[in-house]
Amino acid sequence: MNCISVEGLVKSFNGVRALDGLTFSVECGDSVALLGPNGAGKTTTMRIIAGLLKSDSGVVKVCGFDVIKEPKKAKACLGYLPEDAAPFMNLTVRENLEYVGLVRGLSNIKDAVEWVSQTLGLNGLMSVRPSSLSRGNRQRVALAMAIIHRPKVLLLDEPLNYLDIPTQENVVELLLSMRREGTTMLISTHIMSVAERLTNRVIMINRGRLVWEGSISELMMLVKPGERIEETVARMLKEA
Fold first, then answer.
1. Which domain covers residue 199, as residue numbers?
2. Cα(221)–Cα(170) distance, integer angstroms
3. Nearest to residue 56, comparing CAs of 84, 24, 20?
4. Per the structure, how many domains does the chain have?
5. Is residue 46 part of a domain?
6. How large is the average pLDDT for residues 216-227?
7. Within 10 Å of residue 52's Cβ, how many Cβ atoms?
8. Cα-based torsion angle of the residue sequence 144, 78, 24, 1 in order, rounded to the nearest 10 degrees
9. Would you say residue 14 lies in a domain?
10. Does the pTM exceed 0.85?
């Protein structure tokens, strides 16, 4: 069963086509890296899947629900960390988490807030407003808001942005544990080491079109002698 299904996605901005018939799917339980150069359409794709942006044409389903026809059911399955995510600056960290828990209809918000704050090391920041936090700490709060309801499907757009090395490692371990628990993930990242650790499949897009898809092991087989995997990806995107 596919937990994410994207079929024939088209989106233009001011006459410029950002997505051009993009089609792919992510099976439930899979963790997939979405790769492509700047301007390839990765963030646009994420926003459409999350139901925050409407496509010009095409169909997107999350957990079997059409994001246009059944948006509430589709969004109930989702957690989304956008690129350059920003919590509500006029609320404290605790109020941000409690608000998301309320919107998500959690039965025990207190326990959910305690779990996510402990998991991401936010306990000492709960009474602070995000406007007073570093960009890295804001990223941790935004990630906490994305996972507080333990979603079936998690969309992550550059999840390690702004994080220092120890925090990056903690977040990677958290996402690995969620993957082991069956969370389906679509991760947009430019860091190949992250893709190799967190995902089992790769989807490459460029100019809004699918360039290549396959397993991490299949991608490794395409690496030429003396070539780093980042160079392989760049070459494949350039040749597409």
1. 1-77+153-158+191-240
2. 30
3. 20
4. 1
5. yes
6. 96
7. 12
8. 120
9. yes
10. yes
Structure tokens at 159: 């999840």
Question: Residue 181: inside a domain, yes or no?
Answer: no
123 in Cβ contact with 46 (< 8 Å): no
In the predicted model, is pLDDT for residue 190 greater than 90? no
Sign of CA dihedral 196, 52, 23, 237: negative
Residue 169 in tokens: 């490692």
CA-nearest of 6, 25, 33 to 159 is: 33
Q: Which residue has tokens 């959910």? A: 112
Q: The tokens of 187 are what?
A: 């991760």
Q: Return d(Cα 230, Cα 233) in angstroms, integer.
A: 5
What percent of the chain shows pLDDT beyond 90?
94
Residue-by-residue DSSP string for 140-161: HHHHHHHHTT--SEEEEESTTT
CA 198 to chain centre: 12
Mark 147-180 as b/e (b = at least 16 C-beta within 10 Å). bbbebbbbbbbbbbbbbeeebbebbbebbeebbe
